[in-house]
Automatic annotation (TrEMBL):
InterPro entries: CCR4/nocturin_mRNA_transcr, Endo/exonu/phosph_ase_sf, Endo/exonuclease/phosphatase
Stored Pfam families: Exo_endo_phos
Domain Endonuclease/exonuclease/phosphatase stretches: 32-360
PANTHER family hit by this protein: CARBON CATABOLITE REPRESSOR PROTEIN 4, PROTEIN ANGEL
MF annotations from Gene Ontology: 3'-5'-RNA exonuclease activity
Domain of life of the organism encoding this protein: Eukaryota
Name listed for the protein in its UniProt record: Endonuclease/exonuclease/phosphatase domain-containing protein
Gene3D superfamilies associated with the record: Endonuclease/exonuclease/phosphatase
Amino acid sequence: MNLTEIRKWETSRNCQGPKQTQENQSLNFTIMSYNVLAQGYIETMPYLYYNCNEENLKWPDRKKRLFNQFKMSNADIVCLQEVEADYYYNTYLSYFQSQGYDGVFKQKTQGKIDGCATFFKKCKFSLKEDHSLECLKNGIDLLNRDNIALISILTPFKNPDKQICIVNTHLLYNRKREDVRLAQLQILLAEINRVACKNTNYFPVILCGDLNLTPSSKLYSFLSQGRLKYEHLDIKKLTGYGSKKIGKIFLPKELYISDSCQYLQELEQKNCIEEAIFSSGTLTHKFAFKSVYNSDKFPKVRLNSTCHNLVDYILYSNIDEKLNKHEKQELILLERLRLPTYKDCLKIGPLPNSQNGSDHYYLEARFRWNCE
């Protein structure tokens, strides 16, 4: 089965289609999210790829296919996960710079070889700010992992006064520790809230990455609905069936991150001290993210050579539209690149293979940004 024949642009109930608007009022752009699979993990964990062709696992072969995918996509913004630090500086950065991009990179902590890289076309955007978040907090058991996030504030050349927040992250992979992922999301949302808000006005936010959570999980529900009552959930898996519950205290108060996923200092500066609630048993946030792909209704897709799950996401939020119904919607989803179905995955075979350079498929979406 030819993968390029499957991966066509499509609209869905989430999409409004590529309607025409006046050129001076909007900016159309594409964004890709792709876990490119660190070569070092193939070499240290070859048992995960036992049913793959050995030639397809070698870096020269994978590099060729990955970079062909980048070229074919030609996305305006590219968010990559599992980029090895050495390869970023020696390979990825030089390639994307030769194609007219600029980029930023953040390596994971605790000696991990890989991290996240975000690239953007210099003909469309300039980098106003870049921030990084480390999910490692000394002395806090829920935040003792190496995961990170990269947050970039981009401005369009069409209107340098407008800004958009691009978040690129790779959360913990451990199916038994939903609580750790929730803690990582709480501090990430607090950081997004700090960076994407200026003078009480929020920029549009696009959250990309390998979140290692499924559309049926409580964490996905938390991202999309903006609320999670955790008090009576199992302490690790966040189900209602375990004998040991989380209780009201989740993250320690000394982090100064409220149950509304905001820093206490930010709330004080905004004179919103009434939102400074801690250890209530319920987490909330303002963003109410929408998924480019149709959450649990979308077919399962190939994650690696042995699993079929949707764990990668492009999520987006128009927070000012939520807070004020009279505000014009800034960010509109036009199209998405179709993902293979479960049956397609079985026909295509284990990943990486001769068509796909990673053990993940990349996601891509086309947006219209009303940035007049």
